[in-house]
């Protein structure tokens, strides 16, 4: 008789220890299907290499080690897969929406050019540079009241120029 684990011994080991090996895989992995795949693959690999298992009583130890190694490999593949997945694309506007947005930007820029210089400066610093009214006043060297007045008049002029309700 050739050295190694016999098919009969491996079959008996399968019947006796399948559930405990499945439990071992379950401790390492998170879904039943993966656990079953790992345990089945472990039996296939040990079956293919059964001649190298010189002592039949060590078959279970080989199976356990194979389950652990295959579980590690499955986890590594998952982690690598998650790393390689590209981030989902943000919701993109349709071509029509993009064209409409461009027209609105063009209209806004044209309307901004039609404002008085101080109104334009106040609105740009306040709303595009996201400065507070106090910061705008300090930057332009004007009073806080002037910032409020220029801002209010500038917005009213923009609404009028762009056809928005007052």
UniProtKB/TrEMBL annotation:
Domain (RNA polymerase sigma factor 70 region 4 type) ranges: 106-158
SUPFAM superfamilies: Sigma2 domain of RNA polymerase sigma factors (SSF88946), Sigma3 and sigma4 domains of RNA polymerase sigma factors (SSF88659)
One protein family per Pfam: Sigma70_r2
RNA polymerase sigma-70 region domain location: 14-78
Alphabetized UniProt keyword annotations: DNA-binding, Sigma factor, Transcription, Transcription regulation
InterPro entries according to UniProt: RNA_pol_sigma-70-like, RNA_pol_sigma-70_dom, RNA_pol_sigma-E_actinobac, RNA_pol_sigma70_r2, RNA_pol_sigma70_r4_t2, RNA_pol_sigma_r2, RNA_pol_sigma_r3/r4-like, WH-like_DNA-bd_sf
The family this protein is said to belong to: Belongs to the sigma-70 factor family. ECF subfamily.
NCBIfam families tied to this protein: SigE-fam_strep, sigma70-ECF
UniProt name for this protein: SigE family RNA polymerase sigma factor
Native source species: Streptomyces ziwulingensis
């Amino acid at each position: 008789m050739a050295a190694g684990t016999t098919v009969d011994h491996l079959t008996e080991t399968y019947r006796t220890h399948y559930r405990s090996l499945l439990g071992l895989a379950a401790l390492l992995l998170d879904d039943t299907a993966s656990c079953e795949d790992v345990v089945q693959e472990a039996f296939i690999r040990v079956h293919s290499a059964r001649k190298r298992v010189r002592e039949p009583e060590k078959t279970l130890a080989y199976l356990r080690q194979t389950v652990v190694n295959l579980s590690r490999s499955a986890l590594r593949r998952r982690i690598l897969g998650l790393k390689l997945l590209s981030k989902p694309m943000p919701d993109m506007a349709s071509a029509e929406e993009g064209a409409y947005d461009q027209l609105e930007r063009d209209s806004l820029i044209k309307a901004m050019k039609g404002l008085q210089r101080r109104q334009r400066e106040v609105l740009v610093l306040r709303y595009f540079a996201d400065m507070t009214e106090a910061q705008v006043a300090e930057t332009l060297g004007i009073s806080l009241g002037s910032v409020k007045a220029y801002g209010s008049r500038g917005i009213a002029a923009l609404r009028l120029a762009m056809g928005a309700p007052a």
